[in-house]
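Encode chain A's predicted structure.
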Amino acid sequence: MEQELTASPEEIILFHSHDIDFQLLQEDSVRDWILLVVSGYGKSIQELSYVFCSDAFLLEMNQAHLSHDYYTDIITFPYQDDSSAPLWGEIYLSIDRIRENAQAFGVSMEDELHRVMIHGVLHLIGLDDHSEEDVAAMRAAEEAALQIRPEGLC
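Encoded structure for chain A:
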């Protein structure tokens, strides 16, 4: 029996574009996939807000909030109080950087976008990427999440 996962009114996942013309395709399927990944970790969602933006905007965010003076593909801001609380945060993604990385890695834009989107969720769940071991665990978790995307998303 296949379980249908749809965000309940209590589990909010939002998608916005800030300073670029970008529209996420198949929002409902992406939302269901994110819920599936999150539930696999025994977690739930209070609210996730994805903000798709330019390299320039994310660089400004990186400088202002993290004191990092370099481009990045993602910045995640967690708002939940503790690790047992439902996930709550904002995830900013540079579409410019994701497009460039997709080409550099020889993958489709959609695959790289989905990888980066789930990377932010994994940070909110508690995975990190500071040490080599952390990076390896994060990459394995990203790959596992990509493997369970619904047909049509991959």
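Residues 99 and 121 are 20 Å apart (CA to CA).
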